[in-house]
Amino acid sequence: MNTLSLRIAGLVFAGSFIFSPMTAQAEIAKNKAKVSSKASKTPTHSAKDEEEAEPDVQLHASADYKCELGNSLTMYSNADDPQHIAMRWKKRLYRMSRVETTTGAHRFENTKAGFIWIGIPAKGLLLDSRKGLQLANECKTAQQVLAESSASTDSAVQTK
Fold first, then answer.
1. Are 78 and 84 in contact (CB under 8 A)?
2. For a Cys-Cys bond, which of 11, 30, 44, 108 suits 117, CB 3.0-4.6 Å?
3. What pLDDT band is residue 12 in, cutting at 50, 70 and 90?
4. Are 38 and 68 in a shared domain?
5. Is position 156 within any domain?
6. Strands 61-66 and 115-119, how do they pair?
7. 32 and 83: one domain?
8. 3-class DSSP state of 53
9. Is position 154 within any domain?
10. Which domain holds residue 136?
């Protein structure tokens, strides 16, 4: 019996040497994967800084939007940079970056502030992605209001 327990103990001891380096290599590989996945998830500082910095809108074209419930906002666009716009909301300027959509809607986001602007030909919509709320809905420029009223006038004339 003593011989059997010595042999089993010897095998266990030898087995720990055989599996120990492999386990250590597996641990190292796992740690490297964790570090690389954390690095890929962390946004670059320059993109974060761009969203935090207040954009210069002096040479930009602006569009004033009047929304339901008395809200208003202003969008500033630059023909040289179609990937970004600036938005004035509640007396602050935010830099918004374009996000491609499959529907053709114009979607801009500022992930730092949590804002999402969705613009379609009929109206615009401002969302708070953190709280899951609509901040402003039925946002229209003066041109959109005129186009809407002339379209309703034309349809009223045609129905008579």
1. yes
2. 108
3. very low
4. no
5. no
6. unpaired
7. no
8. coil
9. no
10. 49-149
Bridge partners (DSSP) listed for residue 119: 106, 124
* Residue 155 counted as domain residue: no
Total count of residues recorded for the chain? 160
Indicate the average pLDDT of the chain: 77
145 part of a folded domain: yes
> Considering its fold, how many domains does the chain have in total?
2
Instruction: Please check whether residues 77 and 134 belong to one and the same domain.
Output: yes
Range of 37-41, 79-83, 106-110 with top mean pLDDT: 106-110
| Band (104; pLDDT cuts 50, 70, 90) | very high
> 84-103 burial, b for 16+ CB within 10 Å, e for fewer?
bbbbbbeeeebbbeeeeeee
DSSP of 93-156: EEEEEEE--SS--EEEEETTTTEEEEE-SS-EEEEETTTTEEEEEEEB-HHHHHHHHHHHHHHH
- Compute the distance between CA of residue 69 and CA of residue 76 in angstroms, rounded to an integer: 22
